[in-house]
Each structure stands twice: as structure tokens, then as C-alpha cells.
Design goal:
Distance between the termini of chain A: 23 Å
Number of domains of chain B: 2
CATH topology of chain A: Aconitase, domain 4
Largest interface: A-B, 45 and 57 residues
Number of strands of chain B: 19
Shape of chain A: globular
CATH class of chain A: Alpha Beta
Structural class of chain A: alpha/beta
Number of domains of chain A: 1
Oligomer: heterodimer
CATH architecture of chain A: Alpha-Beta Barrel
CATH superfamily of the largest domain in chain B: Aconitase, domain 3
Low-confidence stretches of chain A: none
Number of helices of chain A: 7
Order of helices and strands of chain A: EHHEHEHEHEEEHH
Strand order of the largest sheet of chain A: 4-3-2-1-5-6-7
Bound molecules: iron/sulfur cluster
Strand content of chain A: 15-25%
Amino acid sequence: MKNFSGNILFLDRSDINTDEIIPARYLNELTKEALKPFLLEDLKLNGFNPARDIKGKSAIITRNNFGCGSSREHAPWALEMNGINLAIAIDFARIYRQNMYNCGMLAVELPMETIDSLFAKYAGKSAVIETDLKKSAFTIRSEGDTDIIPFEISGYDRALIEAGGWVEYADSKY
Amino acid sequence: MGRTIAEKIFDSHRIDNPIPEIHVLRLDAVFCHEITTPIAINDLVARGKDRVFDPDKIKAVIDHVSPAKDSNTAEQGKTLRSWARRHGIRDFFDIGRNGVCHALFPEKGFVRPGFTIIMGDSHTCTHGAFGAFAAGVGTTDLEVGILKGVCAFRTPETIRVNISGTLPEGVYAKDVILAIIGKIGVNGATNRVIEFTGPVIDAMTMESRMTLCNMSIEAGATSGICLPDMTTVDYLWSFIGRDYSSREKALEDFKKFHSDPDAVYSGVIEFDGSAMEPMVTFGYKPDQVKSVREMEGTDIDQVYIGSCTNGRLEDLEIAAQVLEGRKINGNVRGILSPATQDIYLRALEKGIIKIFMDSGFCVSNPTCGACLGMSNGVLAEGEVCASTTNRNFNGRMGKGGMVHLMSPATAAASAISGKITNSPIFRVRG
Ligand code: SF4
């Protein structure tokens, strides 16, 4: 199973699309590794600097409709290649969310109030998240502050992660 | 309790419910193109699972960058080509016979009412125009589709969008879908199906219905669906004529998928088609929509007519009506990419290509090209494109470029004036 813990990258915007996560001009790349330097290159977000802000991050917390637009699985791959296997949002675009689980990555929805409070408390600080999949809970920490946040994951999504993704799951079952 | 068309298609294709809200469906077709399929192929090979569930249900095309523009895209084409040969995939369309996937596959008769279809491409929702459940998926879902002929979906909640009245002259399916997205937002239909109904849809050609369904993903929808009717039967007749004794019999058969009168929708949204006018996007999200009137006078550098949204013969005909006998503005580059080889040929025969060329348009071959900023008309920093495509995302047609989405009529009129302009065909109802 992948690692779902580490430093958090806060992206304070809704509707971040897959062209922003990885622009189409890189879709001619033949390996996942080649996508690594271009993650979030076209993101429209004031003050965001991909070269400075992505390094060392392992999780993303953002607002609504993360991953809308194109079906490209290059978007979760570009995250994965940068060591980011966990995205937390109020909600996700359908294809993007499924792509995350199909790759054995974690996409978790939290209520708007929880996301609002996480932004208020931790954005702009160096915050760390720890994921306890067994207990279905995140622990988020920065200087002085700690929150334990329970989350829900369906038995099916859990089975996908545990099987190592949808290919193995489906090939053994159907 | 009544069922929607999507629910009926799910019921007739379900093979498993791993949990109640997840439905694993048997697929009638898996479509492939050279951008998202090669990585799936390579992964299947690496897993020792280089198999296909049924070569006759897999259709493949090289369309996104055709001809190849560099060594990487050449390699992508090569991977798809040799895979299609190795597995005996007969319906494989290479350059000279190809076209943008969502225009090509319907044209070949591969989409039928009641079908389940996936493709590694978000605009797969286009095929819902035929009364199919067609959804874009990522590479891993595509991989499993190729291998096993199945895909998992959530319970298809449906929003019904009903459009009453008749569209004014000069207002098209593109304007309708832009108005809808503008109202419900880029997240308005996420995880749901949009079912389009009403007299405006009934009066639409299959081409227009494809334009409409094509952009339902821009509101987040899994699929856009129109109910099959005589227009659907007529379009498909050359492919289904052998299976039915008459068109009426075919229609009767397709009607079994129609939503029941007491079907349950998660929402019903009403629009008055008679009050609609030409629409255009501003900004970087497809729901940032204004009327052309409000955006009139915005300077443009390039006009692009093509793509799976608006590169069909009907679109070319409408643009040609506006362009005939006129020259495009000297400050504007006009690019036409007919969506398929067949559309190109028919446009040639009808004299439409000549009208475009006489007006100063460059006519490119069928390809996705500039729509996703990969070739054939990529924008420079700060340039503005009036485009008949479906996405105005930041950087979509080239880093630092701005895209305004509009109908072919508006794009043609804008090419002539060099600014966003209402087409002369548009008539406000008195
Ligand atoms: S024309 Fe554009 S939107 Fe359509 S399939 Fe090609 S790249 Fe995608």
C-alpha cells in the first residue's frame, strides 16, 4: 500500500481542473516519471509557486470539484510521481476520483465546515497529516495545534486500495 | 417505480454490485485513442495480461496528434497501431481514414441506443446523443475495459434538462449547452447523468445532439443522454437496416429504453429555448458564460473551427453560410479542421472547403490538434482564440493563451470582423 502521510499542500481554490494539474502539452510523454516536473504548472492561484510549494509535500487539501475536466490519469500520476498519494476535498470530479482509487491512491471527501476550519487553522503553516486507514482517521498537526478528523471510505474503495488497484481486483473477480 | 433511461441501461448490463451503490456493467464497446491507450497497453504488457476481451468490441483511432508531430507522439501512434494488429482489432483508424474519435465512431455506426461505452477520454459523453450510456474514464478503467469488458459506475442519478419552445434563427446546440453550463456550473451535474428532453431536443439533428451531449462533462456529468427517436433511427438506418424490417420497428425496439413517465429524477431544470441567444465563454471555466452581445468587440488573434464539439458537416455548413463571399479580417488567423476524413470529403464535394479557403481560412486535416494545444494552431502567450471547441481552461490551447468558446456561426462572424461578433444569421425574435 502507498504512503498517505506527510506534509500538506493547501490549494485554496475550487474547480482545479486536470489541465491545471498536468497540461495537455505533456500528454505525449511516455512514462509517468517524465510528468514529475510539470505538476500544477498552469494552476491559477495567487501566490502559488510550483517550484517552491510542491517540494516535500505528500498530501493536498483543497476545496470543491478537484480534478474536473479531462479524464487523463496523468493527473493522479503527476501527483504520485511527486510523492503525493492523498487528496482531501469537499468533493471530486467523478473520473478523477475513480482514477485515484484505481491507482491505489486515496481521495477523501470531508464536509465543507471541516475543510474551512482546516484552511483557517493550518494553511500557510507547515502542517503534517498522518493517515490511519484502519481507524479511518487523519491526525493533522502544526506548531501547537492538533486535530483528529475521522473520515469515511466505502468497503469497495478500501478493497481497491488493498488489492493494489482496479486491474488486479477486476481480473481476479470477473 | 419508473426508471430513467440510464437506470434501464444499467439494469440490462449489470453483472455485479460489490456494494449497493456501485454497479459493474458489461460493456458493448470500448473506444481507444493514442493518447490515453498506450500507457494502458504498456501496463497490461508489464502485468503479463496483454489480452483483449473482444477485438470486435474494441474500436481504436489515432486522432489527437495526427500526423505525429514529434518522436513521442510517433511512439504513441506506433504502440496503438501494433497493439491493434497484434490483437486483430479490425476497426482501427489510422491517418487517411481517421478523425476525431467522438465524430468518427458515431459516423461508422458503432454507437447504438442502449449501449454501454467507455473510452479514456472525458468527452465520451458525446455518444449519449444516441440514447447510450457513454462515459469517459481514466487509463486504469480503460485497461480493465480492454481486458475484461467491464466497468464500475455509481448509481446513475439523473438530472432532467427540459428545453421548451423553438430556438431562434442563428442559435444552435452550442449556445444551448453553454447556457445550461452557465446556469448549473462546472460542478452542477457531477456523478450524475443529464437527460435532455423537450421540443428543442426533438427538433435537433443527431449532429446537434452530439454537440449538446459532448459538453455535458463540462458540467461534471457522467453522461449526457438524449432519448432515441426517428432522427436517431434515420441516422443509423444504413447500419441497422438489416436487423429490422422497418424504421418503425427499430424505433419501437429503441423505445424500450425510454425513461418511464414516473421515473425519478434528482432534479428537473427548465429552459425556454425561444428566449435563447448566441453565447460565448469568458475566463478559464466553461461556466463563465455571457451572451455574445455582452462580449461583442473583444479582440481575437485566431479562429479555430473543428473538434468533437463542432467539427461536423452541419457545423462547417453553418460557418460557410456566414463566410460565403467574405474575407476574414487581416489580423486574424483562421483554421478549419473538419472532424473526420468523411466530413472533409463531403465538405469538398459540397463546395464548403472552397468557401473557407476563399475567405482566407487554412484548412487542416482531421485531428484534435489545437483543441488541446498539442499541434495545428497552438496559441502564443497572451493570444486570444475564438474557438468552437469545448474547453477554455488556462493553457488549454497553449501556455498563456485565452480561449473563448462559441458556435461555428459566431466563430465565422468573429473571423470576419476580427472581434467577437454575432453572426448575421442570428435574428432576435420581435
Ligand atoms: S477534439 Fe478536443 S475535446 Fe474532442 S477529443 Fe479531441 S482533444 Fe478531446
